[in-house]
């Protein structure tokens, strides 16, 4: 960052003014008291609903955070785009899409429905995420598979040792996972999984991935890696191929925000992924990654403040893709 600053190569030369604007959006959106914390996983219902954090990391590695940005929260569904990237890297697009579609489902994230080919609609909903989990290094022992996922997160967050695991959420998640078990068995019955898939291990692995935790600081770096075509801006290490990022951002754009994805793509015009713990990962390609965390959710399951923030951001800056 310092070298780029001296040479005048930073992507946002007047980063201070930009940060001031972000602070002002934070103050404004923090007044919104709407929404409810997710309670279908009891442990998630116990977080402080007033937490609010925003972090930014540009593709030149400029960073800014405000609010509760060093407090961990569960990534939940934000594991979905990252797991999708991992399987694209491992198997390539053709193999991956023999097992999962790339069309919005038009129904809720845990909908008990498959597409006309008896495959999950896309990797951003539960059925599709269970499917991508089945494709992540299935030959490894469970402990090694989990470590593999954490290592990937470490790469895309710039090796800050920022990834953790919330065991209580994991146990709670597993106890309340009847729908996910149903989805798994339904897909098994339809022959959607790769041969030799161990369904119970796959589900277990999916619950573990949802229970990974981190803070907005680190998540913004992951988002910036996606904004930067797969190269982590803090380490300059390539974590994935351009094409993987292209595919992932395309599906985040069309399917990343539950039943609000079409509306989000229309009004905000940026690829994003939300999670039921109130996290929101927003990517502005070639410019920056943003992570927002605020646990109160709207009726679609998206963070109320996260949506408010995104709306206000594109009102003040011309970030909408079109
Ligand atoms: O599978 C579940 O029930 C959740 N843990 C998924 C989390 C989530 O954020 C829903 N997203 N699409």
Description of the structure:
The protein is an alpha+beta fold. It has a single domain, classed as 3-Layer(aba) Sandwich (Beta-lactamase), CATH 3.40.710. Strands 3-2-9-8-7 form a 5-stranded antiparallel sheet. A 3-stranded antiparallel sheet has the order 4-6-5. A two-stranded antiparallel ribbon has the order 1-10. The chain is globular and about 55 Å long. It comes from Pedobacter westerhofensis.
Features:
322 residues, alpha+beta, Beta-lactamase, 5-stranded antiparallel beta sheet, 13 helices, binds 6-diazenyl-5-OXO-L-norleucine, ANK repeat, acetylation, repeat, EC 3.5.1.2
Tell me the layout of helices and strands.
Blueprint: H1 2-6, H2 15-29, E1 36-37, E2 53-58, E3 63-67, E4 73-74, H3 79-91, H4 93-96, H5 126-135, H6 142-156, E5 164-165, H7 167-175, H8 178-189, H9 199-210, E6 212-214, H10 216-227, H11 242-255, H12 261-267, E7 272-274, E8 279-284, E9 288-293, E10 296-297, H13 304-316
Antiparallel strand pairs: 1-10, 2-3, 2-9, 4-6, 5-6, 7-8, 8-9
Helix pairs in contact: 2-13, 3-5, 3-11, 5-8, 5-9, 6-9, 11-12
Strand content bin? 5-15%
Question: Structurally, how many domains make up the residues?
Answer: 1
Number of strands: 10
Q: Which range best describes the helical content: under 10%, 10-25%, 25-40%, 40-55%, 55-70% or over 70%?
A: 40-55%
* The named CATH superfamily: DD-peptidase/beta-lactamase superfamily
Q: Helical element count?
A: 13
Could you give the order of the helices and strands? HHEEEEHHHHEHHHEHHHEEEEH
Indicate the CATH topology: Beta-lactamase
Distance between the termini: 29 Å
Strand arrangement across the biggest beta sheet: 3-2-9-8-7
Evaluate the radius of gyration. 18 Å
**Principal-axis shape:** globular
**Briefly, what CATH class?**
Alpha Beta
- Class by helix and strand content? alpha+beta
Q: pLDDT below 50 for ≥5 consecutive residues: which ranges?
A: none
Bound molecules: 6-diazenyl-5-OXO-L-norleucine
The mean pLDDT is 96
Largest sheet properties: 5 strands, antiparallel
């Amino acid at each position: 960052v310092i070298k780029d600053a001296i040479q005048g190569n930073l992507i946002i030369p007047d980063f201070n003014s930009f940060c001031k604007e972000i602070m002002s959006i934070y103050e404004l959106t923090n007044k919104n008291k709407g929404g409810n914390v997710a309670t279908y996983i009891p442990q998630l219902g116990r977080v402080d609903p007033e937490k609010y954090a925003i972090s930014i990391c540009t593709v030149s590695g400029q960073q800014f955070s405000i609010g509760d940005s060093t407090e961990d929260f569960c990534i939940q569904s934000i594991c979905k785009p990252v797991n999708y990237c991992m399987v694209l890297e491992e198997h390539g697009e053709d193999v991956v899409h023999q097992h999962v579609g790339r069309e919005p489902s038009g129904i809720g994230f845990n909908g008990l429905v498959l597409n006309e080919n008896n495959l999950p609609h896309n990797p951003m909903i539960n059925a599709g995420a269970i499917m991508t989990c089945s494709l992540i290094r299935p030959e490894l022992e469970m402990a090694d598979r989990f470590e593999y996922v954490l290592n990937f997160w470490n790469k895309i967050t710039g090796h800050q040792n920022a990834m953790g695991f919330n065991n209580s959420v994991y146990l709670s998640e597993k106890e309340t996972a009847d729908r996910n078990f149903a989805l798994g068995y339904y897909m098994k019955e339809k022959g959607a999984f790769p041969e030799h898939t161990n369904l119970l291990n796959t589900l277990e692995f999916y619950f573990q991935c949802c229970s990974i935790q981190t803070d907005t600081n680190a998540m913004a770096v992951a988002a910036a890696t996606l904004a930067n075509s797969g190269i982590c801006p803090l380490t300059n290490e390539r974590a994935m191929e351009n094409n993987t990022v292209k595919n992932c951002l395309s599906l985040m754009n069309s399917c990343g925000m539950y039943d609000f994805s079409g509306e989000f793509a229309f009004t905000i015009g940026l690829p994003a992924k939300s999670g039921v713990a109130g996290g929101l990962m927003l990517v502005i390609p070639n410019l920056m990654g943003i992570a927002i965390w605020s646990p109160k959710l709207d009726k679609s399951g998206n963070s109320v403040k996260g949506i408010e923030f995104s709306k206000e951001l594109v009102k003040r800056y011309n970030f909408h893709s079109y």
